[in-house]
Design a protein that fits this description.
about 475 residues; Rossmann fold; 18 strands; alpha/beta; globular; single chain; 22 helices; six-stranded parallel beta sheet; 2 domains
């Protein structure tokens, strides 16, 4: 097996910095690829948490003026990850969220901040680090999407490039005047370049210039080629359909493992599924819900947003109550949704419980203790929470979109699909359809044999990166072969 060197470029990497699923992928994929002969180094920004972690890193390069201030490129490792870190304090030394201020507003210089990341990625692609000259530069989402553009406009021999879309909703849109400040030629302001409705889009640049485009599920790869699903970039993706593919995400099954998980009340396996009851009791106690093993407990771990369909779940709360079910929700996001969920919890103590924010330990307990996990997204590139639910015996209730469609086998479709059912899917994505599926799930919950079969089918599903990493390795090798003279 010929070794392959890949530089991954990501704005967040678990377990160092995480705001969403991108970090999980960026943290797990490099480790999974080692078994496939791929050596991956990951480039990320030097946020405060990153610099604290990399205090003993090796300095590779220093610049007196890098996009307006001094900067360094460091190398180090953490938790099996080989890292390059761009330490530019005037761009990254800021508290809190990597992308927004404490008020939830985008940092005004985000364009420069992430152009700087892409620029150094291109330089590493050109050989800035002689000990690691990559065969492929793999850019994740809009924050890294200028890397293929810089490599294109540098007009020099370059490595192959891959662009992965984690969510089409985030496109890195800025004023056209930014082009000069980030060192791209003005000729790039073109419909075949960065131009996007009079401004520029970093994501569009990556889609235009990457040799290969991937997204995180096969169904989402089809959805984003439509005008609605592509969110303004469907035409670009239709034109490049021959290099676009969907590769499902996996999860780190060493982190998400009910047999060894230190964050749950009682560890269990498929052979000891009865021990889940201790986690349900602990979850009910943690959320101040009425203690009852015979009441279906629904879990939600989500950003509270329109995309995630959490307004639809609010409309379905009367169904949850009338069916005698409970709801434990962990999440944050839209202020109005937060307020409405908290009001529902106050109005229904012991039945509805809400924790605003994100807590990794609590997320594990929800997976281990809830009977079903709800993901009612209007669109979902892949989704990771439903994969964790399968791993923990929480039966997923999901909308028929994107990766949710690809990863869950509906209870009514098991025979035709050839796979055992693992959950419930609903369409269209409406409150009425969700409510109907909740009623169906409630009826099934009280059929203990059928519910146990759903749980065991989920627990036996391979949600790891093993096969998915192999798909990326094959993509890399195919690209390298195609680029050979």
């Amino acid at each position: 097996m010929t070794p392959v060197r890949v530089l991954a470029v990501a704005s967040e990497v678990y377990p160092i910095v995480k705001t969403g699923g991108l970090a999980d992928v960026a943290g797990a994929l490099p480790i999974a690829l080692k078994a496939h002969g791929v050596e991956m180094h990951t480039l990320m920004p030097g946020y405060p948490d990153v610099m604290q972690m990399l205090s003993g890193g090796d300095e590779i390069r220093r610049w007196p003026d890098y996009f307006g201030g001094s900067g360094r490129l460091l190398a180090g490792s953490r938790d099996g990850l080989d890292l390059f870190v761009l330490d530019v304090p005037h761009l990254y030394e800021r508290p809190g969220n990597p992308y927004v201020t404490a008020d939830g507003v985008d940092w005004p210089d985000n364009g420069v901040r992430f152009a700087a990341l892409s620029r150094v990625a291109a330089d590493i692609g050109h050989g800035l680090v002689p000990a690691f000259v990559p065969d492929i530069v793999h850019a994740h989402d809009w924050q890294a999407a200028l890397a293929p553009a810089y490599l294109h406009y540098d007009n020099r021999p370059r490595p192959g490039t891959v662009m992965t879309i984690h969510n089409m909703a985030f496109q890195g849109r800025f004023d056209r005047e930014l082009i000069g400040a980030i060192g791209l030629p003005w000729g790039s302001f073109d419909v075949r370049g960065l131009e996007y409705f009079g401004g520029i889009s970093f994501l569009k640049a990556g889609l235009q210039f990457a040799d290969r485009i991937t997204t995180v599920s096969p169904t989402y790869a089809q959805e984003i080629q439509s005008d609605d699903g592509g969110m303004g970039l469907g035409g670009v993706l239709r034109e490049r359909a021959d290099v676009l593919s969907g590769i499902l995400n996996g999860i780190d099954i060493s982190v998400w493992n009910p047999e060894t998980d230190p964050h749950i009340a009682y560890r269990f396996s498929a052979k000891e599924l009865a021990f889940r009851a201790a986690n349900k009791a602990a979850l009910q106690q943690q959320f101040n819900l009425n203690s009852s093993p015979e009441v279906p407990l629904l879990g939600v771990i989500s950003r509270l947003s329109w995309q995630k369909g959490l307004d639809l779940l609010l409309e379905a709360i009367p169904t949850i109550l009338s069916e005698g079910m409970q709801l434990a929700l962990l999440g944050s996001g839209d202020r109005d949704l937060q307020d409405r969920y908290q009001a529902a919890a106050r109005a229904n103590p012991g039945r509805i419980a809400v924790v605003i924010g994100y807590d990794e330990i609590l997320a594990h307990l929800i997976q281990a203790g809830s009977d079903a996990l709800i993901v009612p997204s209007r669109f979902e590139p892949c989704g990771l929470t439903q994969l964790c639910a399968l791993r923990y015996g929480a039966v997923p209730i999901v909308s028929r979109v994107g990766g949710l469609e690809d990863t869950i086998v509906d209870i009514g479709e098991a025979d035709s699909s050839g796979h055992d059912a693992t959950g419930f899917k609903f369409a269209p994505v409406t409150a009425e359809a969700l409510a109907g599926t909740l009623r169906k799930a409630n009826t099934t919950f009280h059929d203990k044999l059928t519910w146990r079969r759903l749980q065991l089918s989920g627990l036996s599903t391979d949600v790891s990166w093993r096969n998915r990493a192999g798909d990326y390795a094959a993509l890399y090798r195919g690209l390298i072969a195609a680029r050979r003279p």
